[in-house]
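Internal tracking record. Fields below are filled automatically when a chain is submitted to the structure queue. Please do not edit lines marked as system-generated. If the sequence contains nonstandard residues, flag them in the REMARKS field before resubmitting.
Queue: standard
Priority: normal
Entity type: single polypeptide chain
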Amino acid sequence: MNSTLLLSIWLLPLLLATLARLRHAHWLLPLATLPALLAVAILPVGTTVSLPWLLLGSELGLDETGRTFLGFSSLLWLIAAVYIAGSQHAITESGRFRVFFLLAMAGNLGLIVAQDMVSFYFGFTLMGLSAYGLIAPASSRRARRAARTYLAWTIAGELLLFTAIIFLAAISGGALTFDALQSIPRSPFTVLLLIAGFGIKLALPLLHWWLPPTYAVTPVAAVAVFSGVMIKAGLLGLLRFLPPGDATPPDWGLLLVLIGTATIFFGVVAGLLQKRPRLLLGYSSISKMGVLTSGFGAALAFPSAAPGIVAALLVYASHHALAKTALFLGLGLIECSGRRISLLIGLGFLAFVLAGAPLTSGALAKAALSDSLSQPAPVLVTLLTVSTLATMLLMVRFMFLLWTRRQRRILPLPGVPLLAWLYLVTLILVLPFLVSGIDRLMINVVPVSLGLLLGLGGMLVGSRRSRANVPSGHFDL
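SYSTEM-GENERATED OUTPUT FOLLOWS
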């Protein structure tokens, strides 16, 4: 039973992909997520199965880390699938798009339950290469250029990971499971390969060049899973291949803390310079991946505190995945139907959530990560506070761009995508109160308030200067 359920997480999306080009196959997309959702609901933590006939001998299982990743990933794939199934967008209605969507889903969900390097690599590669087909239709020259850029960086990351796996297998005497690799020391070259390979997926600075053009042209439902789910495969890869402890020297953790810190501020500065909401949200994701990278670096640098830090990282990754997916799906509703006050209110709430405002899941994630870092690395708690202020600035800029967006004719809102988005927004609204007390959610008041005031002040000054520069008799309509 366990082996059938875990294996069907891979197989059902792959099997449904063979039917996805049929005329009325769009509702097959949500169906593909059911084995993963069922596994999260009924399989106990610690479940493992061996499949010696699969690949080079696969190990599938569900540990605490995998359960968390599988939980938010399968839920968000389901919501994105329902959003796509009810959409009338020409691209997402095509059978070609549905095939690649299911293949990317199979790879992403499959790598989460993989407990050996080869199975993880198979899922990682399937997800990365299949996402190429989601980026845009072949008829768009700009989209083809973005797709080629994405593919080149993806293949580079997979080659780096493949090389690291070869070195790890040689050092371990051919052992391929993550359990067998827990205590085997990593050479500096192998660690560097892993950081670079997964750093591409995390879009760390100088490894991020695939992200802006991809987010600019890809259908918004696919961007939502890019930013909410697939980008997190980089964090999961680091957790699997570089577990905190004796296997990885602490100095690498300090390096990752520095890289993560640079990523946080790079994402914020680059995001504030954007004039397109999609790209601003993309650079915001880069900044948040910097928070996760810094936290993971702290876990490597302070092995005794690693269990608590990793648990907090899982909370933070779940929060970001839900909030960022909802932001992109809400933005998609505005792109297809026009700007409405009701949509802006919902997106404004999500902007506060992403920034970590009090009484939101962002506050809960910040509290968990701050508590885990307060003893080993108090300076990172200060960094989190600054990050909260900076994210609030980004979100004010995001809402300003939506408010000043050139308004075209208002079209009816698509019913099914709207319901899928509202369900996700409602879940984000109530979830923190279901898992935590109100007192734990009352943090970040000062950085969020200060970021809001600074952001509004900056937008007001910028708006006045723009009006002053408009020649008499000419208006930007």
